[in-house]
Design goal:
This protein has 129 residues and is mainly alpha-helical. 41% of the residues lie in helices and 5% in strands. Helix 1 packs across helix 5 and helix 4 packs across helix 5 (104-115). It starts with a helix and ends in a 14-residue tail after the last helix.
Length: 129
């Protein structure tokens, strides 16, 4: 598992990906049903949007879209202002801003704990093995 996959796995957990049969989510969560592990709002590879979030055909396509989104941010190819010099903490503050009722600091801490990455890790470091 490379660094980007490790980051996606940690974020997927924090985003609330739960499969069918979870006692709290018997039908699975929206991100699970829509094959969207990071709750992307939009993506060039999505089928459509439902309830404001991208829908993908398969889990693999949703995972690939998440990878592509992170790579775009790490290379400065988005309108977010993030670049390869941006830190993971800055990335998560853009991804899950406090203004959207997110506990951004808890999100940062959960991802760092799950991955072992430092909050000062730069996005460009995700692109190296």
């Amino acid at each position: 598992m490379d660094k980007i996959d490790k980051l996606i796995a940690a974020m997927q957990t924090h985003e609330g990906w739960h499969a069918v049969g979870n006692p709290h989510f018997p039908q699975g969560t929206r991100s699970y049903r829509q094959h969207n592990p990071l709750n992307l709002r939009t993506s060039p590879s999505m089928l459509w949007q439902f309830e404001g979030y991208a829908v993908f055909a398969t889990d693999a396509e949703g995972w690939l879209a998440a990878r592509e989104d992170i790579i775009a941010k790490a290379t400065g190819n988005t309108s977010t202002g993030l670049t390869g010099e941006s830190t993971l903490e800055q990335f998560i503050n853009v991804w899950a801003p406090p203004g959207d009722n997110n506990d951004t600091q808890a999100y940062v801490q959960a991802v760092l704990t799950a991955t072992g990455f430092a909050y000062t890790m730069k996005l460009k470091d995700l692109l190296t093995s």
